[in-house]
Each structure stands twice: as structure tokens, then as C-alpha cells.
Amino acid sequence: MVDTRDGKYSVGGVLMDRPFKIRRLGHFGINAIKMDEALRFYHSLLGFKIVDVRNPFPESRQIPDEFKPFGNLSGYFFRYSHDHHAFVLYNHPYRGATDNRDRWRKNITVNQITWQVGTLAEVVNGHHWLTEKGCNMAKAGRDMPGSNWHTYLMDPDWFQNELYYGIEQIGWNGHSKPWDMHHREFSKVAPLPQISEYQEVNDALKSGSQFTSGYRDTEPLEEKYDVDGVLLGRPFKITKVGPVRLFCENIAASLAFYRDMLGFIVTEEADFEGDPIYFLRNNTEHHSLALYPVRLREKLSCRDDSLLFSFAVRLANYGQLKAAVSFFRDEHGCKIREDIPQVLYSGIDYTVFVEDPDGHLIQLYAYMEQIGWDGKPRPTSQRRQVTPGDWPETIEPASDAFMGEPFLGPLG
User: Fold this and answer.
1) Which pLDDT score is estimated for 99?
2) For residue 19, which of 126, 223, 253, 261 sits 20 to 30 Å off, Cα-Cα?
3) Is the pLDDT of residue 154 over 60?
4) Which pLDDT value is given to residue 61?
5) What Rg value do the Cα atoms of the chain yield, rounded?
């Protein structure tokens, strides 16, 4: 890592304030207490596909007595597209009993917030830079399953953030990498350079690895819904993850961490009943992260033992979003919240929040405002104002409708 000019760093030949640039939210994880119910919610109802399962005790007789009350102890990796995982589900009490004390807090029911950078060099150089800046680094190396090179660090509230590069891609046959290809897991910062993914695959072929021995998901619901011409098990399709909304004990410290250390851009600051809210981005979306003072948690009737406000997923379009409301509320009896004021999710218009079995809020939406070359958000007066619970059959397009990161590949 070399200072190239006036304290700037070359990131692919572009001078930046830090030796990495976050491109997007890559994946996110929740720790659950009601594991079996949560698994059904995220797999069957929300439609994430299981891509790998990490079972610490493959045989039930091996489970120590102190862990048996926790229920299902497996960790689940889910995808919605070709990235190996976009969502991870772990058992919160079990993680509390087994994780390093420096990485777990009872009121942090998020197991990771993971941000994608562009190259392996950015991960490694970023790790050294963040360490030099005095950040609370947790671990570094390469994860398996997923194959992503990473560095982990804790924010002021103990949310675990990950910077990563090079996650495994799932192909047309739906199989994840064979377990015998996981030998290139690293528990320390990677020395550079590393062999390519192409060479890793060649080496695996030579060793006789069976490429269809990896995990392949089974659709849990009947594919009976006509979703814009494709039959699926639910009347919608996830096409993006995020934004993430966090309650903060010290919002000024959290803002400084994400803005000054990780390089997020503050898109907009709002006020809700005298409290500041910050919307931050790292690409063209209005925000991929929003920060709220923890005292708003009670006002908003959110779960009182967690600092997670909500995790959002984007659906393919407004029609699918409208159908999802009926699917969750009317067909499956999930609690739907439409009472959260629009100022708390600026840049999004039509939306709902669905409660998962542990009371986490999962926000569903189909449109997010996009930020152009001048970096300015749309004036509030020009935004579509919505009435919660009012779902028109169709809506007029915004100037940036269907803009931003597109979904690649088939719906199912």
C-alpha cells in the first residue's frame, strides 16, 4: 500500500481517500432464537435459496447437553441470485455460547453486514489501513463456504462489518462448490498475489473433485404463481438486498465510523420528532445504510432487545410488491406493518415491513431513488407521497424507475 499523492491511495489507478472503495451491500446475516420458524420464514416465505448448511454437530448424539435447549444449531447460507450467499442465518444463543467474546453482544442480533469491494488488493490494503487507523479488527482471511476474501471489523455498537472480494458464483445447475474445495480457507490476511479461481478449479479437477457433489436447494413450495410469465413458489422475486437500518447508542460515533473509516457518502440527513437520521450510500442508490438514535426504538414499537431496526429486500416491481403484501398477510398470517412514517425511509415510496418469527422487521420495496453525477438527492417536495395501506392497481413511473443495479439471470 503506497501513498501516491497528498495522502491519497491508488484504487485501480484512481486516487481515493482510502485504499478501497465499497461498491454495494453484498450480504447480511441475522441471528435467530426461533431457528426452525426463522428458517421457514426466510426459505419458504421470503424465497431465499439455501446454498450451503454448516452443521457443527452432524449427528444429534454429539450435541453437548448445554447446547440442546438452543434448538437447531446449523448455520444456513442463502442466495437470491448467483452470489453464493446474500443472507446468512445463525442461532443467536449458540453463537453467544461459542463465539469469541469480542465478537458477540446479546443486543446485536446481526451476525454480519458485508460490503463488497472491487479487488483482493483492496481487501488486504484496506485491512492494513483500517488497522493503522485503530479500528476494532476482528479477523481476516478467506471464508468457506463462499470463497470470499475478507477482513472483519466492529462498529461502535458492535455490529460486525465485513469487506470482501471474490465470492463464489452459483451456476445454472444450482450446485455450490464441493466441500473438498474448501481447503483454501485462510485464517490470516492473505499474502499477495494469490492463484486465480480458474487455477483453483483446474487443481480440483485434477484431484478428482465431483463438481455436482455440492449443495443444491429444493424448492419448498408449489410453483403455482404466475410471476410475470414464470411459475414460482411465491408471487414475487427478490432482486436485491438492502438497505440496512441500525439503531445506534451514539449516532455521532456510528456516523463517523461509516463515513470516515468505511467511506460511505451521506446522501441526506432527516429529522424525526427532533432526532437526526442519516442516510448513507456507496453507489447510486439513495442509501444502503441508515442510522437512527436508539431512543427511537420505543417510539417505533420495534423489538426492544435488538439494535437492528430493519433489513430490506427489493422485489422486481411494484406489482410483485403489491402481491407480496397479500401473500404474507392474508395467505400466511404474518404481521405486516404499514405505520412507519415515510421520512424514516427517504428515497423509497411504496413499502411494507414484515415481522419475522423473532420480531425482526424485514422491509419489502420495489423502487429506490437513484443519485446522479452531481451527488444530489431528489428534493422532498418532488418525491411521491404515499398513504400507508393504499395500494393503487398501477402507479406512474418516477424519472429513475427501474434504474440502478439490475437483476441478472432468470427469476427462478
Assistant:
1) 85
2) 253
3) yes
4) 81
5) 21
